[in-house]
């Protein structure tokens, strides 16, 4: 690996983008679809869970928070292995026939980032709840009623939480390669393609794909930031 | 809701007695001002009466999760528009959509914020925020409204505006129960006074006699601006 490789990687990346290489576009499209679907599912579960944890007071709550924080660091390959065992033909969910499909990759990424969304939103919304609790109680709203209020009033901070989840999902390789299988034209994503090209020794192509992936992730973040700023200006 | 009857309230926090054996009766009528030096227990008493805190001993009737509405010294505005801030508690109270909009518009009109209805509430100035908090509570048309130092950090002009709003709310039949450390304001607004010192009620009664000639040495010292401990 030297400067020349880096240079040819840029050239290769430009060529990929300029020609709109259909294979790469398909891989890129699948990557985005899988990660966005996983993000959607994880958000539906993780954000309300985080909000509930922010307001609920019950014995063992601290243990749940600690466990959730620990799950944020769940190694993707371990998560992938567990999903693999569940979905494999002899596994409990084997009858669904999902192993080595994009759906399996969505499940793996959703499992991976749900704790991240829940733990981060718990943190963000707990601070908001501290500020709001007395006022909401004065209006007669208990903790349960506060959950939708916190989710709405914390929407700008939660967007950042969602971005963290999306970043983790789209950058992840260990889980999707196990449950997806990196099948060309079916379950090959940007990250598994990069892993494959690297192991094949085609470093410029691997680097080029990596550059494209980084630009996409950067673009998504910039777009989200712009939306957030615009909405903040309007809604405070 | 009225009268609210507090009997022999005591409240302690972290082993420190904040209120001891406080009894008082809140009846319909002109504003009741709770006066006393810092640390006398005024804010805690308001929270007990409103229902945000539970007394360690004693009882308050009628029993309810909360009584009336309250505006805090530093009001917490929701991260929403000015109008949405007013409509939120109205929705919690179960009012239908059209009624919420009607009341919100009227309340904003009354506090002079109608033109700012679509602005983010937290971008308002301090005085505007306090007026919004008052409008938000008043739109509930509560029988009693608790105000904790509503003008504590406002300049004289904003203080005047808030006092006019308070007088307007009182004139429409809402009982005002408020704390203040501004004696001029207390004289302008009070119909009745409860004077607290070291967590106990030292004097309670009509405002005029209290300001003209307090019965207790503590109240006399307080009115003269002496430091009380």
From TrEMBL, chain A:
One Pfam family from the record: BPD_transp_1
Q: Which UniProt keywords apply?
A: Membrane, Transmembrane, Transmembrane helix, Transport
What membrane topology does the annotation report for this chain?
A: Multi-pass membrane protein
State where the protein is found: Cell membrane
Q: What InterPro entries would the database entry show?
A: ABC_perm_TupB-like (IPR049783), MetI-like (IPR000515), MetI-like_sf (IPR035906)
Name the SUPFAM superfamilies on file.
MetI-like (SSF161098)
Q: What is its main location?
A: membrane
Per the record, its GO cellular-component terms are: plasma membrane
Which PROSITE patterns does this one have? ABC_TM1 (PS50928)
Q: Which domain of life is it from?
A: Bacteria
Record keyword Repressor present: no
The ABC transmembrane type-1 domain extends over 28-224
Q: What are the TM regions of this chain, as residue ranges?
A: 36-56, 63-87, 93-120, 156-183, 203-224
What the entry lists under CDD domains is as follows: TM_PBP2 (cd06261)
Q: Name one GO biological process term.
A: transmembrane transport
Assigned protein family: Belongs to the binding-protein-dependent transport system permease family.
Q: Entry's PANTHER family? A: PERMEASE COMPONENT OF TUNGSTATE ABC TRANSPORTER
What is the name of the protein in this document? Tungstate transport system permease protein
Q: Which species?
A: Belnapia rosea
TrEMBL record, chain B:
Listed Gene3D superfamilies: P-loop containing nucleotide triphosphate hydrolases
Listed A to Z, the keywords are: ATP-binding, Nucleotide-binding
Report the SUPFAM superfamilies cross-referenced here.
P-loop containing nucleoside triphosphate hydrolases (SSF52540)
Q: List cellular component terms (GO).
A: plasma membrane
Sequence intervals crossing the membrane:
none
Using the record's annotation, list all stretches that form the ABC transporter domain: 4-223
What InterPro entries does UniProt report for this protein, alphabetically? Answer: AAA+_ATPase, ABC_transporter-like_ATP-bd, ABC_transporter-like_CS, ABC_transpr_LolD-like, P-loop_NTPase
Q: Name one GO molecular function term.
A: transmembrane transporter activity
Domain of life of the source: Bacteria
Respond yes or no to whether keyword ATP-binding is given for this record: yes
* Protein name per its UniProtKB record: Amino acid ABC transporter ATP-binding protein, PAAT family
What is the scientific name of the source organism? Answer: Belnapia rosea
